[in-house]
Amino acid sequence: MTAACLGTASSGLRGRFLKMLALSLLLCLAADAPRPTWFEYDRAAPLELTVVKEAKKGTATVKEVTFAGRGPKDRVTATLVVADGPGPHPAVLYVHWLGEPATTNRTEFFKEAVGLSRFGVTSLLIDAMWSASGWFSKGRYEDDFDASVKQVVEIRKALDALAAQPGVDPKRVAFVGHDFGAMYGVLAGAVDRRPKTYVLMAGTATFHEWYLLRKEQPKDKAAYVKQMEPLDPVKWMGALAPASVFLQFADKDRFVPKEEAQQLIDAAPSPKLSRFYAAQHGLGTSGDVNERFRWLSKELELPANPLPLGAPDAGKPSTPAVR
After folding, report:
1. pTM (2 d.p.)
2. What b/e readout covers 255-286, taking b as 16+ CB neighbours within 10 angstroms?
3. What is the band of 306 on the pLDDT scale with cuts at 50, 70, 90?
């Protein structure tokens, strides 16, 4: 624990400050938490960002882009939604879920990104590894750890691509992730402090419980669980400090039991907020969309509060995700 933390703690030794003392200790421990070393990469390597096509969408410019991934031949496909005006622009990195085929890709949050662009926000929406057709059923247990590390590195490189956009304010960057997107976002945030706030939607505490939903099982289940345990999001939630965290869950989620959700809530650093919605795993109701907008408006200090935009299926539960 740092000397600064000890100083803060010692100032609250009297009885009426015991609660303040406990909070100070928790915050200091989170700030000093060890950070994973697997997700390092060459920050000096060129991003090689290429614009494939460009179009106007309302007040935003939409660019379909690719940029360098972790390996020399890897390319990440993404959509940039660039707000009009010179900036400084708040920015959001979106990482999608594994669910319905139509939205298991960078399109899941496209409407939200366009909506936020009206308030000066530039967003980047990436295709994660699970956007590939049949990714889950074709996956091999022996590859999961290395593939996970690669995905986290590419989320960090996406932050590089977002930060490189003209006018983006590096002090007002948010991360929004759903399902696997939320879980891998926690790992990226455990080593990369650029986001000042996180919205984590319908993630769960460990990776193995979802990967083990495959029809085929590993030869040595115990060994596989042990291999994946160091990546468990619940272990790294505290390392998101000093960022703020908004956790969104569905109360009819067959993939995330409430006790699993509570583990993440308890492990998240303060300041934090958690909400459960009358929805299934896909969320996407007007309630969670609008609260997400309000949270981002406050945390990114937008010049005007985004009006509630609703969702295509406002008020209706989303179809359960398919694994």
Report:
1. 0.85
2. bbeeebbebbbebbbeebebebbebbbbbbbb
3. low
